[in-house]
Amino acid sequence: MRITVERRLRQPRWLVVAVPVGSVVVAFLIAGIVLLATGHDPLSTYRQLFDAGFIQTGSLNQTLITSTPLAFTGLAAAAAFRMKLFNIGAEGQMYMGAITGAAAGLYLGGRGGPSAFAIAAMVVMGCLGGSAWALIPGILRAFLKTNEILTSLLLNYVAGLVLTYLIFESESYWRQTKGFNATVFPTGKPLPSSAVWPGWTIHLQGGINVPLGAGFAVLAAIVLWGLYKRTRFGFEAQVLGDSERAARYAGVRVRRKILAVMALSGGIAGLGGASQVGDFAHSLDGDPNGLQKLGYGYTGIVIAALARYNPFAVVVVAFLIGGLENAGNTLQGANFPAGLVGVIQGIILFSALGGELLVRHRVRLSRTAAAATSPEAAS
Amino acid sequence: MNNSLLVVLIASGVAYGTPLLYAALGELLAERSGVLNLGVEGMMLVGAVMGFWTVERLHTNTAIALAAAVLVAAVMGALMASIHAFLVITLRASQIVSGLALTIFAGAAGLSSYLGNDLNLADQPAVHTFKAVFPASMQRWPVIGPIVFGQNVLVYISWVCVVAIWLYLSRTRPGLNVRSVGESPAAADTMGINVTAYRYAHTVAGGAFAGVAGGTITLAITPQWVAGITGGAGWIAIALVIFAFWRPELCLVGAYFFGALQALAPQLQARNISLGPTVLWTNALPYVMTIVVLVVVSSGTARSRLGAPAALGNAYVREER
User: Fold this and answer.
1) Is A171 helix (H, G, I), strand (E, B) or coil?
2) How much is the average pLDDT of B90-112?
3) Cβ neighbours of residue A211 under 8 Å, at least 6 residues apart?
4) Which residues lie across from A4 on neighbouring strands?
5) What does DSSP assign to residue A175?
6) pTM for this entry
7) Which of A135, B23, B49, B85 has the fewest CB atoms within 10 Å of its CB?
8) Neighbours of A219 (CB within 10 A)
């Protein structure tokens, strides 16, 4: 028996869907083995996960709360990874977007202008905050050829420290300094009601609130798809991702493109941060055990890879992974150790990566070494 | 004199730098064979949690328990690295994405935290820890006392490792083979060197080093288990390999420099010295400095090219040359 692996000339369309789906199934099988090895019943664990993520009363409402930021960070990762620009800083860019978005909301919300104006300002400021933070690794990469993986990642820690600093270690504009509670435990200043983002209620499962941010995420996915599939910008970014040299010969301005893609990626993540403040927290969450513990930016990478960087697939996968995360948070306890969801996500990502081999290559089994080389056996 | 800020900083720089050094040496081995492993943070965390678990649950004398703990940490790190090795060497997956996947799988919100919770390791005092080996009288010697004789055995082992890896890479036949696999796998293959075997061996060995690095944190530096206890040390270690131009002896210098930066914040606070207006600055210093040094190193483009293995990050497929 001999296994040969050879590159496919054409990638069949059905494989592009079948492989990610198959890898999720394989991942749950492997995670089941991990569960068995640590003395948990996989079937009942999975049933509980599915129940808590999608079926139970109120579960879909909660799932949308985790899915919305994940859609943003997933899109942010997809936008950059597509060009082989490995921006792992969506986490920090999201914090920065939350900080700038919250500043806009706090400033404009209390001034009696129309609510839409305050919200629009939060969106713009959130994008700008995320973009600015992403441009640090972007500029370093474009002009000094510094590895963007390490710089964008290290900046996540810095952004986290800034976030904590603003609420816990200083009397900043974002911190609630008045009232009794403020002296007991540091919290962010609550957003004025006119800056709180509206949502739409679906009357199912006891009321599901669809946040405005989820709408923005879908919009961002459409824009991103159009940008990459229908514009010159997207085409050039794609070429650059495949071969920097080819792009240079074709006259693509490489530096500009790197900066633009980083700003785009960071902007989407920053919008996610603004949505965190406007949709859900309604204040800046500086607690190291709050927003920072959730690691939305890192999960976004899993989502983008599983969606094979397709923006629409990112939205769908974000919803599913969001359900998984939400179920993990709901069930967390003695029978359901924290970290399990991360383990499952990691395994999903591993099998999606392994599955990529099947999309790109043809694997053949043949009886003898000689048969593998003869053209008859190959057909 | 031994209490002066400089001596204390160097002494604690050596202590805090040791996990960075182990992790960087491991990453260096993998990268020299052409495999980039961004999963260092995850491998360190799994090593850290399982090393800590071993000392908590193994009821023997201190020396055996600690030796077993380091061994367990190394084995766990190696296991984690073997997943990465299989994906990138056999299945030809992207080394960058696979390494990230490893960090997500094993990292602060993944396997290490799952194990820590499932084995009930949080909020437990360490039963055994690594302590300074030399007698207190020697530790009082001026300057070299705290710096050289005030350390635990893991520090001294790491020095042996630096010399051993340096000798291995520069003076032995297998070391030469590793370098050729990292520079030009096709040429190495033609010479009859088994590229796959070399890459597997060094990636897995690198994982063992990362596991020990994690163990150093939970067994010697902060003897306890908290999810995500490494706090980005794995990423600093990856950056260290770049600063060190892929050379073990320079990893040592870099690791101690960053160790000292980590020690700076608590030391300054203890002495009521403030560097800037806020604690934010001192806390962020190790991360910011890593970025600054990375920029300095990479802007001299020609120089960094001297060190990087030419085939780093590329899968080797014999048929696709």
Assistant:
1) coil
2) 89
3) A64, A65, A68, A197, A199, A275, A279, A280
4) A364
5) B
6) 0.89
7) A135
8) 11
- Distance in angstroms (rounded) separating the CA atoms of residues A170 and A174: 10
Map tokens 């009930």 to a residue.
B120
The string of pLDDT tens digits covering residues B143-185 is: 788 888 888 999 999 999 999 999 999 999 999 999 999 999 9
CA end-to-end span of chain B: 62
Residue B255 has a CB neighbour count (10 Å cut-off) of 30
d(CA B268, CA B97): 39
Q: How far apart are CA A82 and CA A236, in angstroms?
A: 11
Between CA B257 and CA B248 the distance in angstroms is: 15
Contact assessment for residue A76 and residue A272, using Cβ atoms and an 8 Å cutoff: yes
> How distant, in Å, are the alpha carbons of A128, A261, A315, B313 from that of A68?
19, 22, 9, 33
CA angle B265, B269, B270 (to 5 degrees): 120
Torsion sign across C-alpha atoms B86, B91, B95, B98 = negative
**What average pLDDT does the structure give for chain B?**
89
Rounded Cα distance, A75 and A272, in Å? 10
Residues of B in contact with A337 (CB under 8 A): 113-114, 117-118
Q: Domains (ranges, CATH) in chain B?
A: 5-320 (1.10.3470)
| DSSP 3-state of A5 | strand
Asked if A33 reaches chain B (Cβ–Cβ under 8 Å), the answer is no
Q: Judge contact between A269 and A73, C-beta under 8 A.
A: yes
- Determine, for residues B231 and A157 on separate chains, whether the beta-carbon distance falls below 8 Å: yes
HSE of B129, CA atoms in CB hemisphere, 13 A: 15
Strand A208-211 and strand A361-366: pairing? unpaired
The tens digit of pLDDT for each residue in B256-287 reads 999 998 888 778 777 777 666 567 777 888 89
**pLDDT tens string B288-314:** 988 998 888 877 654 555 677 888 888
Residues in Cβ contact with B24 at an 8 Å cutoff, skipping those fewer than 6 apart: B237, B238, B240, B241, B244, B251, B254, B255
Phi, psi dihedrals of residue A363, rounded to the nearest 5°: -105, 130
- Cα separation of B2 and B216, whole Å? 24
Calculate how close chain B gets to A289, using CA atoms only, in Å. Answer: 11
Nearest to A146 by CA among A154, A137, A155: A137
For residue A204, give every residue at least 6 positions away whose Cβ sits within 8 Å of its Cβ, in sequence order, or none: A60
Helices (H), chain A: 13-37, 42-50, 59-81, 90-109, 115-144, 148-164, 180-184, 212-230, 232-242, 244-249, 254-275, 291-294, 296-306, 311-331, 340-360, 369-373, 375-378
Alpha carbon separation from B138 to B17, B52, B146 (Å, rounded): 22, 29, 8
ipTM score for this prediction = 0.85
- pLDDT for res A372: 44
For chain A, the structural domain boundaries read 65-222+251-309
Residues in chain B closer than 8 A to A356 (CB atoms): 91, 93-94
Chain B contacts of A88, Cβ < 8 Å?
100
Q: Which two tokens stand for residue B269?
A: 């606070």
Q: What share of chain B is helix, strand, coil (3-state, %, to 5)?
A: 75, 0, 25
B48: nearest Cα among B227, B290, B193: B227
A333 to chain B, closest Cα gap in Å? 9
The label of the residue with tokens 């602060």 reads B108
Identify whether the C-beta of residue B114 lies closer than 8 Å to the C-beta of residue B53.
no
Candidates B53, B118, B281, partner chain A, best to mutate (most A CBs within 10 A):
B118
* Single-letter amino acid, residue B4: S
Q: How far is CA B89 from CA A3, A365, B93, B313, B321, in A?
A: 16, 20, 8, 10, 16
